[in-house]
Amino acid sequence: MPKDAITTRAADYNQWYLDIVREADLAEVAEVVRGCIVVKATGWALWELMQRELDDRIKATGHSNVQFPLLVPKSFIMKEADHVEGFAPEVAEVTRAGGEELTEPYVIRPTSETIIGHFYSRWIRSYRDLPLLYNQWCNVMRWEMRTRPFLRTAEFWWQEGHTAHASEADAEEETLRILYDVYADFAEQVMAVPVIRGLKTENEKFPGALRSYCIEAMMQDGRALQAGTSHNLGQNFAKAFEITYTDQQNTIQHCWTTSWGVSTRLIGALIMTHSDDEGLVLPPRLAPIQVVVVPIYKNDAERTKVMAVVEQLTAAWRGLLRFKLDDRDNLSPGYKFNEWELKGVPLRVEIGPKDVEKGSVALARRDIPGREGKRFVPQAGLTELLVELLAEMQTALFQRALAFREERSARVSTYEELRQQVERGFAWAYWDGSNADEKRIQEETRATIRCIPLDQPNEAGRCVYSGRETSRMVVFARAY
Amino acid sequence: MPKDAITTRAADYNQWYLDIVREADLAEVAEVVRGCIVVKATGWALWELMQRELDDRIKATGHSNVQFPLLVPKSFIMKEADHVEGFAPEVAEVTRAGGEELTEPYVIRPTSETIIGHFYSRWIRSYRDLPLLYNQWCNVMRWEMRTRPFLRTAEFWWQEGHTAHASEADAEEETLRILYDVYADFAEQVMAVPVIRGLKTENEKFPGALRSYCIEAMMQDGRALQAGTSHNLGQNFAKAFEITYTDQQNTIQHCWTTSWGVSTRLIGALIMTHSDDEGLVLPPRLAPIQVVVVPIYKNDAERTKVMAVVEQLTAAWRGLLRFKLDDRDNLSPGYKFNEWELKGVPLRVEIGPKDVEKGSVALARRDIPGREGKRFVPQAGLTELLVELLAEMQTALFQRALAFREERSARVSTYEELRQQVERGFAWAYWDGSNADEKRIQEETRATIRCIPLDQPNEAGRCVYSGRETSRMVVFARAY
Predict the structure, then answer these.
(1) Which end of chain A is flanked by fewer CB atoms within 10 Å, N or C?
(2) Do the chains contact at A73 and B105, CB–CB below 8 Å?
(3) Which residues does UniProt call coiled coil (chains A, B) (predicted)?
């Protein structure tokens, strides 16, 4: 684990990202399967922790998990006009199975609105069956041309929630509940990633949606990353798949449906929010290992002495902390320090013979690199201190990311200011332009409207492009 | 939820199974995707509980979870001779993606030995990299012609462990550790399903394995169900995929690999071990709802009185019991009783105005149907009683299944006895026949050698078919 395994952000930001993915045991590009990755042990452990936290929130808001088929009849994808346009070009098709050509091909689900719509139309009969609140954790596949581990891959892993309601208001309430209580809460409290809660413009909404909401985060290069989306699908899919119910007046009505998802892309967001030139930095709530203990000794006598104290100290940690004792004999302490820094372990405890004598340990904090983050503390009260420091670090990472985003955000009032601001971060601007204006700006600046934030200022101003007065403010940025 | 929603076992065992799958909200056949199912809310909740228990054991034995691609280059499947023969005829192929024909098709993984072998050959360099102990939870696909929910479906969900070792002994130890400490322990302690731990014959082993071990359970029709397999793959895949390492003498050696899996088939095993003519019966450790509370009242005044006591009683249950309060106002208590019996909830607590006065509740136990399973107990000490009864029921279900299996098992010493015994259950027989003999018996009796049990009697006898003396005993049965 050479110290220079990671390219610095300043030297090459993209290579820095790829180096961390590789060296921190997160993922590997599966060259033999185009656009796909192998998610390695640390990467999948991270995803499992994310899943647990998200799943708790999804269940707490009344949803049950189910599992629909991987394959979707190709004709289903064609039933909703916008959906076809969005997904048909990038599906993988199964045309042969069990040694025979299929009469109708299947596609591997790029998302499951269509196959789920088919079943909902069979399951829902009466208003009493509503709302129907289901979610599934699964793999999906989109044949992307330009891929990058976690951020954009042909196969990825996600949860997709699909719900059906009796009214537009109910569907809208669901869409926003997921955005706020599940996604934004998870991103900020657990990932320590500050997000803007917003509405997508018509250009950027999900193919087939009435309205798409999103949470948007800022990465360390100032670009935006869409970290989760929640769609009010209106009656579009209900009409394409005949999802109807009989209301209390005995009239047949179309349902209002929603869908919402977050994916392994969040691992990319996590890396690019917190990590540094030494490697991965993980918020304690998502760290598969929160504390690593490195014993230091030169001979068997020292080893015995040190290990006895290590055992005493760690006895109380089980169930309280996720920790690892790195007692590998063939590696130097310095090598181990580097390795665990690179893999993003929040706290490192070092104990050598001198520490045993003094009743102390050395303690290093991953988010404060170098000497500043290291100090000697008494063994007495260590457990409580570790728990406290993990909580403190969770907050500190969020605050640091928030300060970074604020520093890289600015209100702009002219198009020239907008051009300059999207070079470094988020440009907040009044907006009253058309879809065509938005596309022109994208061509000229490579920036898009990431969202119309749901928290709007209570004032009006002039549109950054048309100059017309408007009370709507949007966020422009270049995006992943 | 009519009382006669479930066909009796005596009338039609197969229909009984399908009725439970449907009525207990476990799964639905997805007619639009051949051979596939939708796993519904109760079914998936069951699977999640199974996963949690298995995953804990898999991690406790030193394995990490990872995730390999869904797609496998078709040429990979062809690399191991026996593996081709076993799996090539039943794969689904992706021949077109992103709007273009692929030059080399992919198959959807029927199992992942080949793609994982490819990566292991890149990852493993030295003896220091061994053992490599990985597992993945995922979906797989085999284009089966005759399907049945959970028991045999085109897409199913499973875990597949894949490990690499330096020696045959290490691989064998791993294979047996999984069989005993993970699979058999889980089946008996958690599923309450007694299993025989055994070795597969050459005819029945996994395509490409050196030795296949299995756990075999008996269903209520006397047929066997293979509930999990653990394979010592020898050096077959290591040679096909060049998985090598440099040993301590600096010589290049082929690794010894293993693979092992259990799947959503276990849900089928669970149904057919414990359930009865009233519906699903679940062992408490896997019941998504362990206790259901049904309040009984005729008017608002009674409702208020009853619900106050319900709240008091259930306040202590959170975190201790998985429970549900069924306070639906539009359904009668009788309807609710039927529904929860059908869905396999282990314990039902009923509280009406009279119970409030008397300080009692009515308590019904799912594994003892009718009046016998119902009694009145004091509200004081109810929580402790419920916890105790759940543990008791867990043991009782295992004991009942074990007694059933023993009653349906017999030693046979002649071929005629064997023929008769496999009509009703397991036939234990001395065996020294050939592979061809085994196949002939299968043609004549529809029974196969389920396994050579690892616990063998310390004696010898005459082979049931050839009459030759042997010390090897096997179990014949018809199987799912």
Answers:
(1) N
(2) no
(3) none
